[in-house]
Amino acid sequence: MTENTKSPWGVLTGIRPSKIATKLLLGGMSADDTIRYFMREYGADEKKARLATEVAQAELPIRKSMSDSGVSIYIGIPFCPTRCLYCSFVTCGTKQAARFTDKYVEALKREISYVSDIVSENGNTVETVYIGGGTPTTLSAPLLDNMLSHLRDSFDLSCCKEFTVEAGRPDTIDREKLMTLKRRGVDRISINPQSMNLDTLHLIGRAHTPEEIEQAFYLARDCGFDNINMDVIAGLPGEDLDMFKYTLERVEKMSPEDTTVHVMSIKRSSRLHEYLKDYQLTDGDTVAEMVDFAYDFLRGRGKHPYYMYRQKNQLGNLENVAYTKPGFESLYNIYIMEEIQTIISLGCGGVTKTVDRTCDRIERIFNVKEPKDYIERLDEMLSRKDALRNNA
Ligand code: SF4
What we know:
Elements: H1 17-26, H2 31-42, H3 46-64, E1 70-77, E2 79-80, E3 92-93, H4 94-97, H5 101-121, E4 125-133, H6 141-154, E5 162-166, H7 175-183, E6 188-190, H8 198-203, H9 210-222, E7 228-234, H10 241-254, E8 258-263, H11 271-274, H12 284-300, E9 304-309, E10 320-324, H13 331-338, E11 342-346, E12 351-356, E13 361-366, H14 371-376, H15 378-384
Parallel strand pairs: 1-4, 1-11, 2-3, 4-5, 5-6, 6-7, 7-8
Antiparallel strand pairs: 8-10, 9-10, 12-13
Iron/sulfur cluster binds near residues 80 and 168.
């Protein structure tokens, strides 16, 4: 797609098209009329109008089963083995991080204790926990255990319906870490290949092979994980449609419960943005073919789309979509994408969002982005969380 051709989403610029579809469906509009509304009011392609409506329909029963007092907890671990070409997060390489991972976890434990007191004072129940980053499994097994045991001692997790840890990079996973997660009640993990093409993995800065991704996946299965998400990216530099198909087919041979298809987005603070002219980007039309293939292929594998979002500067002006086997929808991802539950974010870069569902009001509390600042300014981060009292 060139700059001048029409966006598949028409004039819709928001990042959450399915949120609009949900409102229409909840207001009593039929699915067919919702599709027509998207096409008429926004000029969206029929395919995209259907996608937004389908996602909204998948989310409705989950929305209904939410508890009024429920909140979710997000914990950020800002360390990764290397920095991916397209990454815009504040993450710190493992070597550099080794100097202060202990201090970071100690600071996090203080924030966990502080926030757990507020959650219990407010009479909230923790419905989901999500530990992301970065790559949380860059922490050593004893450090992960230390953090997770403190988390379990601090929060009442008896009503927790889902506990996810991102184990994104296969080179950070081993049996000891996976068993630690399992022992501490983690029931969902994410192992993210992005591509199963070795050259692409090297190009984007990954120091592992496709075979190591498969080994990590089967190791996780062997450790008892029966709910695994895998992320892939459509439109990685140098990839064509056949390479993307190869990735998706090889991923699906493993049969993960969730497959999330991201579309390459050129983020301002990424290395890719800085050295853009050195890379061969996939054109928008090809990326559109990739996402269409993903939809048909994953549908054919019995998965359905259940959450989605758009980002700035995505190739082809497309969208990220998660597909799941029935019954494995990630609650946390729906809550955050649809903004229907308060998510309390701990750790550096955390953005807490309090959601008042009675009037659709959302307020935000920010933690600082850099790990070093987070450790040094922890008291300030804790006092910012006081805004949650009687609010979450
Ligand atoms: S694994 Fe994720 S957070 Fe880590 S460098 Fe890559 S894109 Fe960034």
